[in-house]
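Figure 6 in text form: structure in, sequence out.
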């Protein structure tokens, strides 16, 4: 199924210029220069890196039915053999299903469960727990005067987790998120749930990975405050893991000041209570272009304290 979706997506990209009508092409570029110890352990070397090179193509094929493919050409230089990573998303989207405020996404998608508030180029620990680049079905129902309810089932695969196992069937993993962002002006609250089945050789449901997220975001004039608690059981060999994230943004004209603090508490034998502190400042030339400088300090409970500085340029089109 995966190879078929990828093939259809690539054919769609090739044929896209010839399609008439409401074809939409957009994308983004994120170029970084990193100095220091790489906390994400991607390469550990100073230098330039293209973190994102997105190309997104959308086309409405019938009333309330559209197709979309999103490619990340930055993954082409990873040389890890996973060319499938290049396809970030590939979906058929059905809107107003049964004449209700229901949208259904079928294909490769990021499944909803965490808040994923992301204003930093430095990826947060919470961001690393997202369920993305997986195949499944995701439905979103808009609740008037309240917010939305998302439900999804998906297939866990080896690209989603760096473990040597095989895929599980699509009905063994699911996510859900209830969001209340219409009750109080400028306030968004959400509760998320994730259940991820283990490989086919391990049939015990007690070994499934279970996650719960509670998050909130409040905007007051030019100040935005956000926080999230994520609890995961049976995650990558860790019996239990708790992540607490809190941060804020403050906008001054075209400048954006931002700070983030995270703690990670797990039951690894090597220790717990790792902390991550990040500060940054961005200058927005306009809504689609900005330059940023950020600094992050990683302080593990056991191990060496490290820090890293990043200068980045982001463009959208």
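Output sequence:
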């Amino acid at each position: 199924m995966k190879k078929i979706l990828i093939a259809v997506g690539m054919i769609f990209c090739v044929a896209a210029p010839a399609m008439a009508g409401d074809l939409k092409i957009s994308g983004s570029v994120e170029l970084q220069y990193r100095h220091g110890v790489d906390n994400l352990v991607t390469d550990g070397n100073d230098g330039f890196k293209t973190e994102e090179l997105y190309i997104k193509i959308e086309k409405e094929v019938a009333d309330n039915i559209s197709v979309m493919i999103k490619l990340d050409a930055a993954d082409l230089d990873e040389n890890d053999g996973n060319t499938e990573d290049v396809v970030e998303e590939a979906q058929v989207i059905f809107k107003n299903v049964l004449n209700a405020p229901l949208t259904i996404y079928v294909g490769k998608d990021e499944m909803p469960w965490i808040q994923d508030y992301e204003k930093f180029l430095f990826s947060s620990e919470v961001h690393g727990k997202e369920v993305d680049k997986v195949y499944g079905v995701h439905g979103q129902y808009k609740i008037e005067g309240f917010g939305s309810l998302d439900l999804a089932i998906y297939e866990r695969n080896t690209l989603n987790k760096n473990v040597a196992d095989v895929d599980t069937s699509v009905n063994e993993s699911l996510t859900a998120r209830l969001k209340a962002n219409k009750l109080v002006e400028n306030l968004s609250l959400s509760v998320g749930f994730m259940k991820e089945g283990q490989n086919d050789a391990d049939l015990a449901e007690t070994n499934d990975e279970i996650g719960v997220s509670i998050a909130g975001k409040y905007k007051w004039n030019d100040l935005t405050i956000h926080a999230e608690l994520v609890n995961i059981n049976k995650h990558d060999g860790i019996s239990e893991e708790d992540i607490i994230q809190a941060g804020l943004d403050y906008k001054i004209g075209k400048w954006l000041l931002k700070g983030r603090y995270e703690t990670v508490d797990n039951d690894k034998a090597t220790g717990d209570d790792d902390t991550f502190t990040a500060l940054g400042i961005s200058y927005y030339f306009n809504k689609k272009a900005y330059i940023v400088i950020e600094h992050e300090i990683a302080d593990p409970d056991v191990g060496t304290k490290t820090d890293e500085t990043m200068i980045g340029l982001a463009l959208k089109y």
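Caption detail: Helices lie at 2-15.
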